[in-house]
Amino acid sequence: MLGLGGAHIGKPDLGEDDAIGLMRAAIDGGITFFDNCWDYNDGHSEERMGKALRDGYRNKVFLMTKLDGRTAKAAQAQLEQSLRRLQTDVIDLVQVHEVIRMNDPERAFAADGIIGALQAAKKAGKLRFIGFTGHKDPAIHLHMLHAAQQAGFEFDTVQMPLNVMDAHYKSFEQGVLPVLLQRKIGVLGMKSMGSGDILKSGVVSPEECLRYALSLPTSVVITGIDSRQVLEQDLKLARTFVPLSAQEREALLARTRAASQAGEHELFKTANKYDGTAKNPQWLETAEL
User: Fold this and answer.
1) CA 243 to chain centre
2) Measuring CA to CA, which residue among 163, 146, 164 is closest to residue 155?
3) Terminal-residue alpha carbon distance, the chain
4) How far apart are CA 156 and CA 42, in angstroms?
5) What is the pLDDT of residues 26-59, one digit of tens each?
6) What's residue 195's pLDDT?
7) Partners of 170 in beta bridges
8) Cys-Cys with 36: which of 65, 126, 205, 230 at CB 3.0–4.6 Å?
9) Cα 89 from Cα 80, distance rounded (Å)
């Protein structure tokens, strides 16, 4: 149900020992999907996760990371760095990160693009599944899925924002989720609280945000966990989880409608606050942080 987000676990204000203990406590509590990315916190998120997964913890989790590289050369180099940091011979799922530009699909599926590199790495036993992630516009996700079809390729997973405000503005839930379900592609939900931006609206609580996302037909909902308090809150919600009724869902959507119209609380769609590869375009071409 729940996945542990790699971005939060590598925050500078969270000590490394505390982060490692938090990840192991999450695993012991039943959270077995671990999210990460090659660029999170200059690689420290992967390094911390690699240390946390020592001592028998690695075989208890489904481990995912993401690569920014669009060329095969950049993707290969980033993958090798991720394998070293995560201290593993194989990563369960590797995803093309931040598919947020309309030309990203063409770059990914080019003759010298990342998709070919990931397929080769899968054949070599370095990864098990291939997916992509993005947070900008459902039209870009659909373009990526179309490019895959044109290339005779099928993604195993797709990661996207799914939350109480997404339904009202550039909706991934309405535009992309039905396609993934039809094609039996794994659904990875993220930004259930918009990294806190949705909570700033004052119209919805953290518990309501997470319960809404978990009520959708997802494979996992990835959430940021950066303290024992947040971990226990999330574990409690998961253990007592009851999907929203149709009436509860409609009431929640009605309450969030006015605050959702312009995407002002979904800044990952409307601003570049979360566009790491836009701020660091060199990541698309190299393995230098």
Assistant:
1) 22
2) 146
3) 32
4) 27
5) 999 999 999 999 999 999 999 999 999 999 999 9
6) 86
7) none
8) 65
9) 10
What's the pLDDT tens digit per position in 212-240? 999 999 999 999 999 999 999 999 999 99
CB-based contact 32:60 (threshold 8 Å): yes
| % the chain with pLDDT above 70 | 100
CB 49 within 8 A of CB 31: no
112: confidence class by pLDDT, cuts 50, 70, 90: very high
Residue type, 222: I
Asked if 238 and 244 touch (Cβ cutoff 8 Å), the reply is no
* Amino acid found at 272: N
In whole angstroms, what is the distance from residue 126 CA to residue 172 CA? 30
Alpha-carbon dihedral sign for residues 189, 76, 272, 224: positive
Q: Which two tokens stand for residue 7?
A: 């971005």
Cβ count near 177 (within 10 Å) = 22
At 127-146, the pLDDT tens digits run: 999 999 999 999 999 999 99
Contact (CB, 8 A) for 96 and 115: yes
Is a pLDDT exceeding 90 seen at residue 69? yes
Q: Could you tell me which residues come within 8 angstroms of residue 193 by beta carbon, excluding any fewer than 6 positions away?
A: 163, 199, 206, 209, 210, 223, 224
